[in-house]
Amino acid sequence: MRLAVVGCGAVGSAVCELAGEYGHRVTALADSTSATVDPEGVDVEAALERKAEGRGVGTVELDRALGAEYDVLVEATPTTLGDAEPGFSHARRALDRDCHVVLANKGPVAERYADLRAAERESDGTVLFEAAVGGAIPVLSTIADLGPTNVTAVRGVLNGTANFILSRMSAEGLDYDHVLAEAQDLGVAEADPTFDVEGTDAALKCAILANVLGDGETTLADADVTGITDLTPSALDLATDDGRTVRLVGEVVDGDGEPEVRVGPRLVPENGTLAVTGTQNIVQLETRHAGQLNLSGRGAGGRATATAVLGDVGRLP
Amino acid sequence: MVAVSESTDGAVSAYTVRLELVDEPGELLRALEPIADNGGNLLSIFHERGSLTPRGHIPVEVDLEATPERFETIVTALREAGVNVIQAGAERYGEELSVVLVGDLVETDLSDTLSRVECASASVADVALSAPEGTDEPASARLRLATQAGERDRALDTVRAVADEKDLLLVEPLVGADR
Hints:
heterodimer; A: 317 residues; alpha/beta; 6-stranded mixed sheet; 13 helices; globular; B: 179 residues; alpha+beta; 5-stranded antiparallel sheet; 4-stranded antiparallel sheet; 4 helices
């Protein structure tokens, strides 16, 4: 397949680096300031080197990348809320040309799912987005295999930053601010951690799951979200005394007709399945005929997430 | 309370109660007395000395025969004697329904919080409060609630409403997850 990769952060650049290994060719690559296009295959190494030097990946405009020859558009620009732009327009432009779209960007799938599916129906292209939920963990393809109607609930620990902070607070008895600063030093938390610690990131992933399982009308605004910023070491101690620990858990459960999305700190058994530590993620599926399925693994990271993107590319018709 | 149908004819049935005992001498006897004193016929006692519940207590399963009315009296007497009844017949009590609250618990009147939770379909089985920084910093409390079968969601809804109104962070148990 010929790939156009838009967005050149950790995921986009890892997709470019690994594409050859998966038998694909990158014919266009764009970051936020520039683009490079070559029907014979972009020199990925040179482009990433340019970017590392602060010069942008290429010398042409983004528009050239979107208009280039490709089979699949890989959308890996940062997630935005509300109208999910410019990610949504990038996806629609590819679909208008009957190209496939693989999203690592959560925005369009969490905030404009119905619009995205409508654009897909008008197109010969297909939209896939495994990388948007749980990084490398094959959550959406497992749900597709089971059949969405056979999955009655999904719950999971879906944000590595929040999970890292909670595991450290619980293990060391340290307060939130202390552990957050440590996580920022380690590069596990962003300078502005709001998106992760307030539960927004987990809620977006749950909105995507709700869309896949339900009527496709769920957005962040429908989610009931509580973050972890008000948790104290003493609260975690009280949980531990009772054989529990606290994790930021996202839940999608069957409501009356439409799935309900809830994200918040929850008590889970200390040695239970959901008590993953550090930056590990876990997703638990309740199924109609197969009981409970637990899928865990790396929920973030450039190369890990890129494997989900390239898995989608291989799954395209 | 245990639901007893009006139309029962007083026939004796077999019941199972699951208890949770503190690991101290005499506790088992103390737990069996309310059964014998109230007309229950002990069939078997399974005392799981080797295993502990998450709270570090010893699980005990007792099979007994009684009329429905007497069984209801027995369960009440057990609870009045301070014995923790986990399960009685088909009715389940206190099934892992622990919650943690964080915030200005003292200033927002902890006893009021407890009594309002108590009013609902649950009774507060125990409370652990932790305020290591004094009353100026947020405190934490763990409540263990005993609920009847089918009342769990309603009990949780009540706790949510109280937490919401008093601006407390509620850490809920995860319903339906592996236990």
